[in-house]
Amino acid sequence: MSTFIESEERTALRAAVAALGKRHGRDHDREALWAEAAKLGYLGVNLPEEYGGGGGGMAELSIVLEELGAAGCPLLMMVVSPAICGTVIARFGTEEQRQAWLPGLADGTRTMAFGITEPDAGSNSHRITTTARRTEGGWVLSGRKVFVSGVDIADATLIVGRTEDARTGKLKPCLFIVPRDAPGFGRSQIDMELHAQEKQFELVLDDVELPESALVGEEDAGLLQLFAGLNPERIMTAAFAIGMGRYALARAVDYAKDRQVWKAPIGAHQAIAHPLAQAHIELELARLMMQKASALYDAGDDLGAGEAANMAKYAAGEACVKAVDQSVHTLGGNGLTREYGLASLVTAARVARIAPVSREMILNFVSHQSLGLPKSY
Ligand SMILES: Cc1cc2nc3c(=O)[nH]c(=O)nc-3n(C[C@H](O)[C@H](O)[C@H](O)COP(=O)(O)OP(=O)(O)OC[C@H]3O[C@@H](n4cnc5c(N)ncnc54)[C@H](O)[C@@H]3O)c2cc1C
């Protein structure tokens, strides 16, 4: 069947997650929702069955995050823990690492954060300087990271570094599992203007000693391994954005049907109705692209998925920002009250435009990779 017409199983998953989301809602307790979603098998739906997962793929995992978001209770750590870290460990980890992490990531008893962004590298990952030095029987990791989400609630963080002899030039990333309480692994919370339960941290890795087994995958496997995790991250950010956009839009549509200050409800005015209709169309289009990206990724086409996942993240981020903006506007003054809870989404929606890769970096990627245009940097 066409991948954009959801199978009965996926439709049922969507409905079941939507029901779970509805029970928890906007004022949810993150831990309780995380535990219940895990118990129902939703958090590990993409992980291999032999390690306690659901044996599905990104198509299923993105449905889970989208529906929780549409119910007002997105679980941001789903973008990193099962999607990036779970995928990378399942695909490139040793048998020991799989046994150690996947069952816990799948049943929600363990969580893993992901750190790539650095203060002096930002969008230019080729410039990261977190460096791994070989020692007898292990590694010593030094560097700094910034904006890393959920380090306090994660058992470990998957840190992207580079080896000492690959310190400059083209990035040959290598990935290390760093336990939360490893000596030398410091974190300080960044004061964000975000109403999210998951916090962002600046990290200092001060000669963190790690065993040999902390390295996930090959030292020299390079970008391929990293992108195996980053494509799911983009797909999940699209799901996050589409869910949030749908949540805001639904609040606005309800409001526009009821609120009446002239003869008809405000939703009868095309100046209110049309932008909401546009927002709906754009969210649906973004979801189609997300489904294409998931289908390619789940079929093992990492290259094709790369382009589609970037485009899906772009489309979803833009659609989310627009849907939230228009929804706030539809509520007039109530759009800015705490009671209606839409104003804080104005900030939250921008996350999907900036992270994990900014709108401009996706436009750069499409300019160069898809259209073959020359590079300015
Ligand atoms: C809420 C939140 C959660 C996050 N969670 C994580 C996490 O868990 N792990 C993690 O590793 N990171 C995380 N990040 C970091 C995020 O991925 C980065 O903020 C993002 O990649 C942008 O990097 P930067 O902030 O350094 O911006 P910069 O790279 O400094 O970019 C600033 C601006 O310049 C533009 N720009 C830069 N270069 C170019 C160019 N060549 N052409 C055109 N425009 C350009 C960008 O588009 C952007 O608008 C998170 C960020 C936020 C806001």
TrEMBL record:
Keywords: FAD, Flavoprotein, Oxidoreductase
GO cellular component assignments: cytoplasm
One GO molecular-function entry: acyl-CoA dehydrogenase activity
Location of the Acyl-CoA oxidase/dehydrogenase middle domain: 113-208
KW Oxidoreductase (keyword) present: yes
Domain called Acyl-CoA dehydrogenase/oxidase N-terminal: residue spans: 25-108
The keyword Oxidoreductase is assigned to this record: yes
InterPro entries: Acyl-CoA_dehydrogenase, Acyl-CoA_Oxase/DH_mid-dom, Acyl-CoA_Oxase/DH_mid-dom_sf, AcylCo_DH-like_C, AcylCo_DH/oxidase_C, AcylCoA_DH/ox_N, AcylCoA_DH/ox_N_sf, AcylCoA_DH/oxidase_NM_dom_sf
Cofactor: FAD
Domain Acyl-CoA dehydrogenase/oxidase C-terminal: from-to ranges: 222-366
Highest taxon of source: Bacteria
GO biological process, one term: fatty acid beta-oxidation using acyl-CoA dehydrogenase
Family: Belongs to the acyl-CoA dehydrogenase family.
Name of the protein: Acyl-CoA dehydrogenase
Organism, scientific name: Streptomyces wuyuanensis
Phylogenetic classification of the source organism: Bacteria, Bacillati, Actinomycetota, Actinomycetes, Kitasatosporales
